[in-house]
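Input for the complex:
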Amino acid sequence: MTYIDAPSTERPPAARRRTWTSARVTGLVLMMLWAALGLSIVYMLVVGYDPEKVTKYGPRILSGIWVTVKLVAMSIVLGALISIPVVIGRLSHNPIIGGIAFGYSYFFRGTPLLAQTFLVYYGAGQFTDVLKAAGLWVFFRDAYFCAVFTFSLNTAAYQAEILAGAIRAVPSGQWQAADALGLRPFTTMFKVILPQALITALRPYGNEVILMIKGSAIASIITVLDLMGQTRYAFSKTYDLQIYIWAAVIYLLTVEVLRRLWEMMERRLTRHLRR
Amino acid sequence: MANYMELLAFGDSGWGDELAHGVLVTVTLALATLPLGLLIGFLIAVAKNSSEPLLRNAAHVYTTIFRGLPELLTLFLIYYGGQMAMSALWRLLFGHPFEVNSYLAGMIALALMFSSYASEVFLSAFKGITVGQYEGAYALGLSRFRTMLLIILPQLVRLALPGLSNLWLILLKDTSLVSVIGLTDLLRNTNIAVGVTKQAFFFFFVACSLYLVMSIISSVGLRRVSAWAERGQGRH
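Predicted:
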């Protein structure tokens, strides 16, 4: 058994030369197609650059971005607040409360957001007298508020499912241990269960924010002038496809930056779980 | 109450037949998109699973684009962009413009979105299949194509089914967006009914309920498919 101790005189194997496999050719062709598409879009944006249109519609697009940001931020925050009672209902052992929470969540997750938005915005018009008497008409006659209202209810259903699922995923031993330590239910929830559940929920929450940004484009259909709404307006005036391309670039960048940021945040927050 | 039943009657007086036709369009659109989306999604997943970095990157660009764009924007880009491109091409070839079919535009846009999500589902299903399966197939002398078809795909279906079921339910809901480019699906016909009768809340509520019924039926069906796919797993 001498060869075990003997230092290896063999050189490491030479790196295998990359050959032109069919996968590589396909990959190259596809990458060239993407590059061609990207370059032609850049070309289109450069050649079609029209200072008149930019001064005319640029500010509108910027205000549209701001409306989209406000719309999404308000919906997510309000949705998070609304989701709290829904989560309590979803986790409750009472069949009536649980049933109501399940029904709420099933309705908003099982129907299209567009149909819900129509239901609120146009449906409210049918109850003008009642709403006027209740002083709510100012709220419901405004497309923007209707969009915030619908999106909040919609995202609340999704957020409730995310949070309820994350709480259920915390092992029951954690509840029992907190109980054995004599912690009150309130303390158990906020100091033991939620910190663990929120880490599980982090990724789905990020996905929900992204879905909301994309979904908020629907508000443009009920005449809200968000980024999509301003884009549609500008397109209807100019018939210039560039405007849609710009909107696509803005949405894509927003979503991609947010996704990267969320990944960084997740890596930072779960650093104690990595081995 | 009787008034509302009249509104939903089939025939000239009510809107029942229009809504039923809308449901049919919605369901057929989703069903027509499904195989296209599954096929593209599967191919993209195979590309992402490749050892060739160029192919992987090309596939990732696809997913990044179509997962990042709002559904509505993708639809408009395909519809108006396709309209402009095809019209220019047609005018060049035949001397007259071309009318892009909203059904086809909707189908393509939905397939692009569906496939980019489906590719992620397939990719994680691929990760659930151990190397031993490939090695076993290689030892048996199966070609790469037959390995995929006979060994990997049957297992992939089982692993990918829960994710794909979710995507189907999302697809069913996303078809409603096609009403915006004029396809007479359920939501579009509901809009027409509302325009005539002014019973907005009632009709949109009916439309929402019909979407719910479609999801419930899908869920029941998908549970059966899942039981079928899991039949070899010894638990039901």
